[in-house]
Amino acid sequence: MIIYGKRLCGRVDNVPGILYVATQFFHLYFIPIAPLDSFIILEGTESKNGFRGVKTSFSLKSIGVTYARTVLWVLGLLMVSQATCRVATPGAFAAHGGSLGWVGVLTLGTVLLVILVWPRRVLRATNDRAFELARKVGIPEETIAALVLERKHHNVE
């Protein structure tokens, strides 16, 4: 059975509780293949049947994050599985002269998987970007201004 379709990936420019930007990709076995469209999505409106939002120009940031995550997942899983196979093979440790090479592979694979939890600064919209996105979907600037004040109060950008 072949699994394919469209799905949203690359959630970026997040304005917590309000909106974010994501790109719809054609996927094959849930691996993003080709970007189709980027959208500004109202947070909390996503369902099986779709979402509420506005189509926007392609978001290179969203596309880049999607492909980077995909590559990191694949590399991380390959490295962890490679290390697991080496550990599970009887005598593999002794055959390599006691080398701890598999530990390095396992560690690097694990690090790659952990990097998938992107820093919030990469994914969060700047104040200017938040205002720009809000205007495009018709959210009052006062809503964003309140969020900006809250960010300044908590010293978060």
Strand content: 15-25%
Number of domains: 1
Class based on secondary structure composition and strand pairing: alpha+beta
Low-confidence stretches: none
Q: Helix proportion of residues, in percent?
A: 40-55%
What is the straight-line distance between the termini?
Answer: 45 Å
* Rg over CA atoms: 21 Å
Number of strands: 4
Walk me through the structure.
- This protein is an alpha+beta fold.
- A hairpin with a 2-residue loop joins strand 2 and strand 3 (31-42).
- The chain has one domain.
- Helices cover 49% and strands 24% of the residues.
- Helix 1 runs antiparallel to helix 3 (101-115) and helix 5 (127-137) runs antiparallel to helix 6.
- It has a 4-stranded antiparallel β-sheet with strand order 1-2-3-4, with helices on one face.
- The protein contains 6 helices and 4 strands.
Secondary structure layout:
Layout: E1 4-15, E2 19-28, E3 31-42, E4 53-56, H1 60-88, H2 92-95, H3 101-115, H4 120-123, H5 127-137, H6 141-154
Antiparallel strand pairs: 1-2, 2-3, 3-4
